[in-house]
Amino acid sequence: MALQLVIGNKNYSSWSMRPWVLMRQLGLHFEEVKLHMDFSEHSHFRRELARFSPAGRVPVLVDDGFSVWDSLAILEYLHDKFPGRGIWPDDIQMRARARCMAAEMHAGFSALRSHCPMNIEAHLPEVGTRVWAEQAAVRADVTRIELMWAESLLASGGPFLFGEFSAIDAMYAPVCSRLRTYGLPVPASSQRYIEHMFAAPGVAAWVADALLEEDYLDFDEPYRKHR
Questions:
Q1: Secondary structure E strands in the chain
Q2: The CATH number of 92-210 is which of 1.20.1250.20, 1.10.630.10, 1.20.1050.10, 3.40.50.620?
Q3: Residue 158, C-beta contacts closer than 8 angstroms, at least 6 positions apart
């Protein structure tokens, strides 16, 4: 039975994006199950998601009836299931460093997430300019991300964080999208990395699908209720 990956809207669901782009990029075959995100109490989204996960969140990886419902846990499960496929770097120290960076992404950068929610089809530099001027915590988040990226790219030689595309790039794919959507200022090395990310087949395929959705969620876009 093929793996299933349960995801939310591609335009908005940053956590869904991470395992999807990794699996697509590395050629790991799976069936996509996409649910229209709706967090109201008795929504179809909640009812359907309950079939796959007790946590009530996307993404969920389903392997022959067995569910893994946390994005980082999904990446680790895939690493164990498909050894040698490049999900994490081969070198033990580089793999540990990549996992540190993934854990930092998983648990941190709340200011960037809150003030710059992922919205792939939007172009919101005016919002980004205001956020950058008013939110010191966002500037601190971006500075920390830039430092990690610069160190990894310098050590690996690029074009991705540890040379070849791996789970750590998938973890930061939504960050690349946020930086681009809101036009936040980044140095040239980060901009080159973002360009490589959007050119990667897995990321490009997700973005193409997101642009076709035209599925506006007002709770995710309070600044565009006039749409």
A1: 3-7, 30-34, 60-63, 66-68
A2: 1.20.1050.10
A3: 192, 193, 196
The overall longest dimension of the chain from CA atoms, in Å, is 51
Give the single-character DSSP code of 35.
-
Kindly state the tokens that stand for 86: 């490049």
**Cα(47)–Cα(158) distance, integer angstroms:** 43
- 60-63 and 30-34: which strand pairing? unpaired
CA distance 120 to 11: 5
Token couple for 155: 């050590």
CATH of domain 3-86: 3.40.30.10
The beta strand positions in 111-202, using DSSP E, are: none
Residue 145: pLDDT above 60? Answer: yes
What are the pLDDT digits (tens) for 44-87? 888 888 899 888 899 999 999 999 999 999 999 999 999 999 99
